[in-house]
Amino acid sequence: MYYPFSNGGSSFMTWPVQAFEAPQQQGLGAMYGPQPANNEQPFQKASPDNSKQVLKNEAPHSWTSHFPSSGPLKLAEYQDRLVTSNGTQTVYLASCGCTLRYAYVTQRGYYPEAPDKQNQDSFCVLTNFGGDLEQMFFGVFDGHGENGTPCSQFTRQKLPENFVGDSNFDMYPEVAYHNAFVMTNQQLHASHIDDTMSGTTGITSLLRGKLLYTANVGDSRAVIAERQGAQLVAVDLSMDQTPFRRDECARVKQAGARVLTLDQLEGLKDPNVECWGTEEEDSGDPPRLWAHNGMYPGTAFTRSVGDSAAERIGVIADPEVSIRRVEPNVEFLVIASDGVWEFMSSQRVVDMIDDQHGDPQEAALAVTAEAYNLWLQYETRTDDITIIIVRFSGMEETDAATMSGGHDADADLVDPGTPERNTLTRRRTRGSNDALKPMHTLRRGSVDSEENDDEYQPPKPPPKTQSEIQMLEDAVKSNFLFSHLNMMQRLLLFQVMVKRHVVPGEIVIRQGERGDHFYIIEEGKFDVLVAQGDDPPELVHTYNAVNGQHPSFGELSLLYGKPRAATVISRAPGCLWELDRRAFHSVMHKRDPKVIMKLLQNVEVLKPLSTGQLQQVADSLQEATFADGQYIIRQGELGSEFYAIESGEVVCTMKRDPDDASEPEREVLRLGQFQYFGERALVSSESRGANVIAKGKVQLLTISRFELCALIGTLELIKEERQAWLERCHVARELMAQRSVALLETDFSLSDLDCLGILFVEEVLALAAMAVEGLGGFVVRLFSVSDTVALGHQSQIVRASTIARNLKHSLFVPPVVKTLRNQAVMADVLLLDGACPLPALSEGLYTIPEDVVQFLLAGVVVALEHMHMSDIIYRGLSAQTILLTRASDNCLPGYIQLVDLRYAKAVEGRTYTVVGPAEYLSPEVVGGHGATDASDWWAVGVLGYWLVTGATPFARHGDDDLRISRRISEHASSEELPLPEHISERLSSLLRGLLEPNPKQRLGSTSGGIRSLKSHAFFEGLSWEQLADGILPPPPRLASFIEHWESYLPGDSFCPAPYSGDTSWLEAF
């Protein structure tokens, strides 16, 4: 259900709420406030419908006992400025047996010069948050500046929506918090609200069962009261983000801010001496942030939402997030704006609340009145004051046996922009009867870990002791996934590991379930059991941490979420260190220049480049630093360098006559972070049209025209190559349009298809040769609906279908001309008259001649070139899924056909998800460094090795994915690659060049890109143009074999069961 709530008077917002039973009452689950000054209603919940109470509502209390009679306001005036919860509200959390009693008060500030000034504070209390009865969300937003009220109200509305809507919300709320604040900030910039010199701070808390996640931007505060013996102690959940903090002060200075008090700014005190002491010693003139050459913005905080002018000097919206477990000794939570904390410490507020005998409404009124009095004691005005108090009662004790590696009792502060990746939800284990049964039986084939591919920084977790770090270091020193990492990367990974205590009989991992964690055993004994079919599980191994040995298991889960091959059960009390896959990837992704990639895509002269070529440019940019006032470019000089601004600001100036020394330079433009200049120098040697001068310290990324040409060729050549490719696509489309007419004009269904035989079958996919009476034969790509759902591959199949529809035409990637489906299968009818699977060639010929290898590999190169020019990484190359054309009126035999698009992905740079056939994964993918075009060229090398040996280079008979991945990771030099003696030196050179472990030195990715691959000596004499046009005759041995091949698999080898569940996702197929 959706109910409207008051949002500042005339405007309304909606929030999804599920009504539920509370003691003798049923009601809404959210409230917002306050309303503007001219439309305030005292003592009303911020809901237009007061007949519907928010859960259980205790009787309102008399607030007059808290009225500060010594102030300038009369009783009625003070009353008019208050909005309260109209009594204490109550909600019950069943999961932890806890009753929450909460109340809020907000008071509009008193400004003698502006008596009608709006309350710039906004707040929200959201029960049943995200449709979950065990979740509550609290937020206080303190607006500032001319448009502070709309800024705080906008943030109050958008932040919860963005938070609960983030894909990380369920598993990693601390990550979702970071994304939500940043997105809300961007949305505010883009809104109709002028936030140039206005914005809002924000303090919010999500209560999820017993876990409390608090995110802070600015100088509002959240505090809990913890009973420690006879004392009730205030524990801060947030840290004020002001220049008083040395880390924040250093950060904004590095961003270009001047940090000065007003006395320093006006010359009354030395601006070079930090004279402000600590926040507790503040004399009323706090340090503020100022632009380098301006008397603005003057903010006394270092983070906020909005404030676009201050953002250029380091005032950011990245929150600091703390995570706290609410134990029985935690009595209440306080969330309040800066109006409360300006003259009161956290402990004083806690003591005041404790004096009110457990009544949150009375306590909120008392604190508000005291804050109001203190403001008038030190000032002639008061700030807006907002406070939310939440009391806990009946909270159950946390059983150590149920803690799956969560945080300990102390709050953990997560560095902004580097959200922590610790898994904090409890594990749900099945009952004993089915605890050891695998969820789904899979054929061994490809790996698949398609996840959110967005970039995020590695977390800054709670510190480990030196002995713990040494233990972890000893445990992973021989592990292939860690051996190639430097010390800093390993330390970052150790810091995000979560300690998990286990009890005897506890299941750590379960056979068949998707694996997301890697484990190191600190102490304990663990049995490994494997179940085959319906047989009882058998003990196959026991891990035992003894004599200083610390075994580990689950390495492959750091790469992809493949179902577990075994169940691991604790046989004694033990301790594990747990590492989540996304935390592992966050460390490995640290240097991915996606922002730079987007910048390069906007440079007009670089528009002809493919994504792969742009990635090469991004990887080759060199850092350059310029000091304040230093000339980067001078007007009239010849230049060859292009520059992108990584941090800082530059000013562009020019003269009408550059040779006139008496003419002053006039400023024409300023450029900031992630903008660029000098792009024309990449095309030709022209005189610079303006000066470019550093304003403050500037960090630039640069590349010269000569370096660019050596890397990818001249831009003119690339433009010509792209134009030729587009023309080839157009010709292919015209040819295929003529061939597809009959298929398009004939109406037929799956039941009309006659299966001639199966070409390939794996997991959810089959390729079949089929025919319809009167139309002849063609190839159909079939997907099992039930298996697709069972494996969770719906998005993968839909993405493959989308790529197939949008891909430009190519003779090497057959287009889909018709899609069919029923309850059992989805079918793509391909414009491919007939085909022979590539593995049949290896089975039918004892040795594949090198002229055939040349023709086939060249076809794969052209096919992948087409994908890369379309900004798609293929990622699924494998001999098993490649088809070869058969001779027909429309095409020559033996031409490569890429028909499996499940792992293809349109990208804007690297992609870090690990998918594709395990034997074809490149070292950089296995190592977590991400896939680029170079990863596809590695797979070509593996395919070439297979063509000449009948096996892939890094797999042995009976190997599992872990052994294969370890061999790939340990491949240090292509010179060590064992190759058959019978192959030519040219072919050996090609394979070694493609199987180079360093992607930057790999053939196809070195200087010249794909041109260097095509010009390799092995391809000498081959006409690439004729091949791309489909008119190059295949080698006779290849054509003869395909002509006589008829060994289909039987048609009943792919018979998926009908699926009766939700098929709405099929509408996108």
UniProtKB/TrEMBL annotation:
Transmembrane segments: none annotated. Residues 31-50, 400-466 are annotated as: Disordered. One of its GO terms (molecular function) is ATP binding. Its EC number is 3.1.3.16. Residues 101-392 form the PPM-type phosphatase domain. Residues 36-50 have a biased composition (Polar residues). This is protein-serine/threonine phosphatase. It comes from Tetraselmis sp. GSL018.
